[in-house]
Design a protein that fits this description.
By secondary structure, this protein is mainly alpha-helical. Helix content is about 45%, strand content about 10%. It has seven helices and six strands. Strands 1-4 form a two-stranded antiparallel sheet. A two-stranded antiparallel sheet has the order 2-3. Strand 5 and strand 6 form a beta hairpin. Helix 3 packs across helix 4. The radius of gyration is 23 Å and the shape is elongated. The termini are far apart.
Length: about 190
């Protein structure tokens, strides 16, 4: 979004826009058209932004709860309580953070991955170098660029892939199975014929 010829006031105002309009403006300025606001990728990320905002600026939430008769649990008493909360329509995760789980995290990471892939690969047709320039923090010295990528990032992206979340378009952690297969000499691969 940085436009060097723009005034600080305009840049400050642009910075206050919500994320989706920012992305859309950046795409249009670069000649890539606009987001399909009806697409699953955009709807999920829009809902994720709402979920983030509600979490950060939380208010009291009333939940329907059912309390059963206390039960003897040996040295303690157990009071069975069940609570019912709403879910985000597109993401299918609970609206109330106390119900979030490991599965909720995987759904969120998947939504993020699919949105970035949609914008960067489908709309912008960005190559690995451009994707990294846009997303990866870096230090620049003249013409030398040092990406702020650590082994832990690569390891975590590889783990995410194992859970079905594909960030391979970043070029930081290729499909571990593919990389492993490529490291095996051709005459030792299982898929070789003859």
């Amino acid at each position: 979004m940085a436009i060097s010829e723009s005034s600080k006031k305009l840049l400050d105002e642009l910075d206050k826009l919500s994320p989706i309009p920012k992305v859309e403006i950046a795409l249009q300025l670069q000649g890539f058209g606009e987001l399909d606001r009806g697409s699953s990728e955009v709807q999920k990320i829009a809902e994720l932004i709402k979920a983030r905002n509600e979490f950060v600026h939380s208010k009291s939430t009333a939940l329907e709860a059912n309390i059963d008769i206390p039960q003897d649990a040996g040295t303690e008493w157990m009071v069975p309580i069940s609570m019912i909360g709403e879910q985000w329509k597109q993401l299918a995760i609970p609206k109330v953070a106390m119900f979030w789980s490991r599965e909720s995290s995987l759904i969120v990471l998947s939504a993020i991955s699919l949105f970035y892939r949609y914008v960067l690969i489908d709309l912008m047709r960005a190559d690995e170098e451009l994707v990294n320039r846009i997303l990866i923090s870096r230090v620049e010295f003249g013409n030398v660029h040092m990406p702020g990528v650590y082994d832990e990032f690569r390891e975590q992206l590889a783990v995410a892939f194992e859970f079905g979340i594909d960030f391979s378009f970043l070029g930081l952690a290729k499909n571990p199975r593919k990389a492993e297969a490529e490291s095996v000499p051709p005459n030792e691969r299982d898929d070789d014929i003859g």
